[in-house]
């Protein structure tokens, strides 16, 4: 199956985006578990986790809208 250069570039860019999002999700999940394991239940911990989840969502949106470097 022959791809032209444009289709191959699009596939490459999409693969980079998917790889970024998977890495981001894995890192955020690890950090959330680390916070849960090491901090007492408190409003501050809940705020930190909420802010982290929000950062992940904004980062995913940015990667989808603007691409990956």
Properties at a glance:
mainly alpha; 69 residues; single chain
- Biggest sheet details: none
SSE string, helices as H and strands as E: HH
How confident is the prediction overall: mean pLDDT? 94
Total count of helical runs of at least 4 residues: 2
State which percent range the strand residues make up.
Answer: under 5%
Task: Provide the number of structural domains.
Answer: 1
**Helix content class:** over 70%
Can you tell me the overall shape? Answer: elongated
How far the N terminus sits from the C terminus, by CA atoms, comes to 29 Å
**Counted beta strands:** 0
Derived from helix and strand composition plus strand pairing, the structural class reads: mainly alpha
Rg, alpha carbons = 17 Å
* Poorly predicted parts: none
Notes on the protein architecture:
It is a single chain. With about 70 residues, the protein is an all-alpha fold. Helix content is about 85%, strand content about 0%. It has one domain. Helix 1 packs antiparallel against helix 2. The longest helix is centred in the first third of the chain and has 34 residues. The model has no long low-confidence stretch (mean pLDDT about 95).
Short description:
The protein is mainly α and 69 residues long. The protein has two helices and no strands. The chain has one domain.
Summarize the SSE layout with pairings:
Layout: H1 5-38, H2 43-66
Helix pairs in contact: 1-2
